[in-house]
Amino acid sequence: MNLAVGSLATSAEAAPVTYRVTIETSEDGTDNTVKARMFDASGRPSSWTEFDKSGYNDFERGDHDTYAIKVPSNFGRPAKLQLWKGGNDDWCFAPWVRVTSPDGVQGGMGASAAAAHLCLTEESEHQETVTASDGTTYTKQYYHHYLPPSPIDWPR
Ligand SMILES: [Ca+2]
Ligand SMILES: [Ca+2]
After folding, report:
1. pTM assigned to the model
2. What confidence tier does 11 reach under pLDDT thresholds 50, 70, 90?
């Protein structure tokens, strides 16, 4: 049997590496399209990945949802995670998004964000102080899309 050289070269290419991203939706869920991509330390992005589980209503209030996102094999630990939402509802989530590597190591995104809730919306970027029914106040930070200024925090 003969194998073409081209097919051997293709099969020798390294497979992408799958990370998992866990997000806790806070008080405002969304039915809009949510996508994410990751960047390595040099700023190179992965492809955009839609976060959608089939037959499941994603990103409802109080849910902890986990999605797979692939990066190239030579990516190293992802340095940043960017979130994007289509449509026009408001989606608010806890800023401590977790990223889990294929070897089970967990990194944290956005821990330095000065907000109790991050919201993706069509409105311009702004900050609101909200008073809950129990009288406590917290901050909502609104973005068109979210790319945290600080890198993902990986344990050493
Ligand atoms: Ca939903
Ligand atoms: Ca779904």
Report:
1. 0.85
2. very low
CATH number for position 102? 2.60.60.20
**Ligand 1 centroid vs 28 CA: distance in angstroms?**
10
In a domain, 2, yes or no: no
DSSP string, 94-124: -S-EEEE-TTS-EEEESTT-S-SEEEE-SSP
Q: By residue range, what is the domain housing residue 91?
A: 15-146
Q: How far is the CA of 33 from the centre of ligand 2 (A)?
A: 9
Task: Please give the distance of CA 1 from its chain centroid, rounded to a whole number.
Answer: 46
In total, how many domains does the chain have? 1
Task: Find out whether 83 and 154 touch, Cβ atoms under 8 Å.
Answer: no
Q: pLDDT tens across 13-59, in order?
A: 678 899 999 999 998 999 999 999 999 999 999 999 999 999 999 99
What is the whole-number distance in angstroms between the Cα of residue 60 and the centre of ligand 1?
Answer: 5
Q: Which residues lie near ion ligand 2 (Cβ < 5 Å)?
A: 52-53, 56, 58
User: Which helix (H) or strand (E) segment is 8 a member of?
Assistant: helix 5-11
